[in-house]
Amino acid sequence: MPDPYINAVAQLDSVKKYIGVSKKVFEQLMIPEHIIRMNISVKMDNGRKKTFIAFRSQHNSARGPYKGGIRFHPQVDEAEMKALSMLMTWKCAVVDIPFGGGKGGIVVDPKSLSEKELERLSRAYMKAFAPYFGAWKDVPAPDVNTNAQIMSWMLDEYQKWLMANGKWQMENPSSPYAVLTGKPVELGGSQGREEATGFGGAIVLEQIAKKLKLKRQYTTVAIQGFGNVGYWFAYFADQAGFTVVAASDSKGAIFVPKGMNPELTLAKKKEKGTIAGNYCVGSVCDVKLGKTLADKDLLELKVDILVPAALEGSIHKGNAGKVQARIVIEMANAPVTPEAHVILQKKGVLIVPDILSNAGGVTTSYFEWSQNLTGSSWKKEVVLRKLREVMETAFDAVWSVSKEKNIDLRSAAYVLAVRRVIDAMRLRGTQ
Q1: DSSP letter string over 38-95?
Q2: What CATH number is attached to the domain comprising 298?
Q3: What's the predicted TM-score (pTM) here?
């Protein structure tokens, strides 16, 4: 499997010619400011201690505190952390929120742990890394296999660490809650966070439709992945008048030519444990309304919009030539490999990059951070209205750079983001 860090550096290098800065500055941007690796020991339910490898990569802080999730996964490694922290720097800069990029993780299969073991592991991670975190230093969030409950345990552990080390008064009275985002609403989490990433992507879909003058009811959408992001993208796309004709999960895919009902499909998925066989149109679910597909077949459907919202690298050089969609909106992180990107471009496919299209999540994390720092709480409609404004502004900025430079949207997003980071570094005198 290609090294994600090498891919991230190659993507950065590809836009160097459009920005016109020194080799020295680009070399700074290629290397994270800090990489922290630790072995953390956790007591298991059988009484034995087990050691886990844990990471935090802090890429760039020129525009603000490091920001990025913590993932629990067997394939976590240093290269992945470096690549994803770099990606977060660009993502935050594209939507113009005052964060840099970070990413953390533990090498673990969380499904192999009991709930108590998971809690002890989460607390051990925070206890070990607490000196590197803080509302004005590094603000982590949920990521792969982590959630609001894990953030709650980590928040509690962080506050214990502050008290034990005499650091509570060094923080703004409300800012211990701002050390983490993606928390439950009851512990300072933001309304609208659950649907934020999918909603942000649907806003991008709306903007693409406006630019290309697409008629929504005749614009077909296929979504790979029907988890949180994929479902909410489907829901808001459907609400906006687009026709969602296909979706998949890890166990199968469905094709519903008349346009599926996302809400009813999700309800049936929860009932049956899979999306396969859930051919729901309007208020009716019937096997005559659709058919089951293999996941690879979903990627090859003749649709207007293809939305990879599941796995990294799901569109690669082996299948990119079979993609028939006119537009790809990346909702997973790096779902289109660099080789596949070249193939799709040659086919005339318009690709909306992940650092723009799935930035609704980190933007709403910024809103959560802001609310925590000011001790305020915004209603969901306020959060989604603010998110719409940010995503529309960011899309217009990327589109303008694309037209100005006559470059693809991914390159345009990187040019915009890298420029903003370099400007911040220049003003600080750190480049």
Answers
A1: EEEEEE-TTS-EEEEEEEEEEEE-TTSSEEEEEEEETT--HHHHHHHHHHHHHHHHHT
A2: 3.40.50.720
A3: 0.94
